[in-house]
Amino acid sequence: MATRNPTACYLLLTICLNFLVIMAKANPTEVSDVGFKNFVQSVNDIEAKLGKQLHGKDENSVICVPSAQILLGLLYAGAGGQTASELESLFGVDNKQLETLANFQKFTSHLEVPEIKIANTAYVAKDLELKKEFVEKGQKYFNVTVSQLDFTKKAEAAKTINSWVESKTEKLIKDLIKADDLSDDAKLVLLNAIYFKGKWAHPFKHHDTRDADFYLTKDKTIKVKQMAQTSRFQYAEDADYKYLIMPYKGSKLSMLIILPKDHETFEKKDISKANLSSLKFEEFRVQVQLPKFKIESTIDWIDILKEKIPTAFDGRANLQGISDTKLLVSKMIQKAFIKVDEEGTEAAAATAMMMCLMSAPYPQEDPKRFIVDRPFYYALRVDYGSTHAHLFQGAVRKPIV
């Protein structure tokens, strides 16, 4: 029986609300609007399927489902049999590989705005021969660059991989992997990087930031740096949560802040079951207080996905569309970083004021209060017409700067 050589599949995600990276360019393939809308919905459905696993348990979290999905899409380009079927079930598609890959291409090309860049690459062992069709699909649909690497020289291989990571993340992520992370039979490393730089459409002013109490529990508080402003925002609420959409300047991206109305809601209710599509957002004058925060996370996606696509990670893996050599996924790691503060907003403030002056005057009604002084959720959203995908998301239990 042929020996199964594991594929070391590393997923890198770097996020910073003032800085964030990804790079992938390709000419979009025509796909139906309905098919693409269903595909975008599948990104959100994966969040629902994975539930609270995405948000961690007792710590701050940041995670990017689409970034993981991009690498899974690349894996799907070389999958067959039960492994392909499991991926199709996860994606919400039905045995339509080329259409699904075209949707991936359209999904990433839609993100090609100045604020976002996407990069995908593959490092291949010198003794592994990739199939021509897989390489062509990777280049066409994911703009993957392919390079050979000698994994037997582990220290040098790790240095090469980490150098690529640093170059695509403005050196925000260093030492993603260690030499010991590369197993003796590693044959292929897939990498995805995301970089984002966005300015608030309604920036916070540094001099309005104050020390304030943040309630970790009903009875326990810490001091945080609380930013403050009163502006017009899209706002909604239901029985359990308040919702606020904070747009980025000149962009299809916005940050959705989800504030539980009490601590019990945050601890006991599953936010993934909240029906965001049924909310009726309206524009109000809102008094916002939001803590500055910075989060770094390392996520083992195999732990998250092992029940959804089990054959990809064991001896049953069917990845023969990648190579005639028997392969399986041995690691899938996501590194994430997010930082929210006032940086990069001063230049935007003057522009925002000018735009406000050109708008029709609004009546000065009493503002809604959106005081984020307890644990909350956030999501960086991308606008796909009438559909929204959560590009980055997480939970803040204890703001740290």
TrEMBL record:
<dbReference type="InterPro" id="IPR023795">
    <property type="entry name" value="Serpin_CS"/>
</dbReference>
<feature type="domain" description="Serpin">
    <location>
        <begin position="48"/>
        <end position="399"/>
    </location>
</feature>
<protein>
    <submittedName>
        <fullName>Serine protease inhibitor 4</fullName>
    </submittedName>
</protein>
<keyword id="KW-0646">Protease inhibitor</keyword>
<dbReference type="InterPro" id="IPR042178">
    <property type="entry name" value="Serpin_sf_1"/>
</dbReference>
<dbReference type="InterPro" id="IPR023796">
    <property type="entry name" value="Serpin_dom"/>
</dbReference>
<dbReference type="InterPro" id="IPR036186">
    <property type="entry name" value="Serpin_sf"/>
</dbReference>
<keyword id="KW-0722">Serine protease inhibitor</keyword>
<feature type="signal peptide">
    <location>
        <begin position="1"/>
        <end position="26"/>
    </location>
</feature>
<dbReference type="InterPro" id="IPR042185">
    <property type="entry name" value="Serpin_sf_2"/>
</dbReference>
<dbReference type="Pfam" id="PF00079">
    <property type="entry name" value="Serpin"/>
</dbReference>
<keyword id="KW-0732">Signal</keyword>
<dbReference type="GO" id="GO:0005615">
    <property type="term" value="C:extracellular space"/>
</dbReference>
<dbReference type="InterPro" id="IPR000215">
    <property type="entry name" value="Serpin_fam"/>
</dbReference>
<comment type="similarity">
    <text>Belongs to the serpin family.</text>
</comment>
<dbReference type="GO" id="GO:0004867">
    <property type="term" value="F:serine-type endopeptidase inhibitor activity"/>
</dbReference>
